[in-house]
Amino acid sequence: MDDFWRGRRILVTGGTGFLGSYVVETLRQRRVQEVFAPTREEYDLRVGAAVQQMYADLRPHIVIHLAAIVGGIGANRERPGEFFYDNLMMGAQVMEIARQRQVEKFVSIGTVCAYPKQTPIPFREDDLWNGYPEETNAPYGLAKKMLLVQGQAYRQQYGFRSIFLLPVNLYGPRDHFEPRVSHVIPALIKKCLDARDTKARAIVVWGDGSPTREFLYVEDAAEAIALATEKYDGSDPVNIGSGVEISIRDLVHLIAELTGFRGEVRWDVRQPNGQLRRHVDTSRAEQAFGFRATTDFRKGLGRTISWYEATRNQA
């Protein structure tokens, strides 16, 4: 075990979720003895009293705050108030009570959605405040970005050790495939498999396919979070990405190929594209704590598709 983890109790909020489950596994691979991943049913992090009770019960030395209300473009458009309020209240209270209880280190997980709509490619951390986020997910992005503001303010006034990481879009096994909450990769995988199995002639995809995105395999993201927790102690935000940019059009065709769907792709241009390009500069993460993504995108997609097919067949 790395000496950093020895004897420390680690709280992972959202630890039973998609990313959280991998972070918990990564910590256990490091032989961390006490890792806590409470559920929302146990402690509703939007409620101050519940957060107080969680800290009293678990007494963590380190907090990795992953809990969030998330979804794709459709969910963000339908529930902007919920996405703003719930994420803001969870983050503010979880960090404030950590400060009150003198937690040794606090790791905040932000989102690439926090970047301005018009950001030069690749996104560099210094550009984070140079404009307003893309409108379809601005409430979510801004609520998460407040974790950076809060952490920097607490470091300045109280010497509170808080770091802030900005992951790109994640994908992998155990992702959420329900249409109302899923992000683009699981949504496309489900759409292509459903069409293949029903022998549908076409699928419909939002937008025109021109926007680009950067995707990071979830196991790589979990490793980045563990490395940053161990080795990074700065106030500056840090991008976490793969360094690979792909258009939605190319992504659809790649997923269609890997799932065996051979029909037509129809683009619904009445629906929003979202931000035109997303691709981050990952040099700070490599320099600050030695992180570099290792999972090939095609292989990662293959693993994700295989997991979903097996899970769906079992169900």
Provide a descriptive summary of the structure in words:
This protein has a domain of 204 residues: Rossmann fold. The chain contains ten helices and eleven strands. The longest helix has 21 residues. It starts with 8 loop residues before the first strand and ends with a helix. The mean pLDDT is 95.
Sequence-ordered SSE layout with sheet pairings:
Elements: E1 9-13, H1 18-29, E2 34-36, H2 48-58, E3 62-65, H3 73-78, H4 80-100, E4 105-109, H5 138-158, E5 162-167, E6 169-171, H6 184-198, E7 202-206, E8 212-217, H7 218-231, E9 238-240, E10 245-247, H8 248-259, E11 264-268, H9 283-289, H10 297-314
Parallel strand pairs: 1-2, 1-3, 3-4, 4-5, 5-9, 6-8, 7-11
Antiparallel strand pairs: 8-10
Which word captures the global form? globular
Structural class: alpha/beta
What is the CATH topology descriptor of the domain at 9-170 and 217-242 and 279-294? Rossmann fold
Care to count the β-strands? 11
Return the average pLDDT rounded to an integer.
95
Widest sheet: strand ordering: 2-1-3-4-5-9
CATH architecture of the domain at 9-170 and 217-242 and 279-294: 3-Layer(aba) Sandwich
Q: Could you tell me the strand content as a percent range?
A: 15-25%
Helix content: 40-55%
The CATH class assignment of the domain at 9-170 and 217-242 and 279-294 is Alpha Beta
CATH superfamily of the domain at 9-170 and 217-242 and 279-294: NAD(P)-binding Rossmann-like Domain
Q: Largest sheet, if any?
A: 6 strands, parallel
Question: SSE order in H/E notation?
Answer: EHEHEHHEHEEHEEHEEHEHH
Count of separate DSSP helical elements: 10
Distance between the termini: 38 Å
Low-confidence stretches: none
Radius of gyration, Cα only, in angstroms? 19 Å
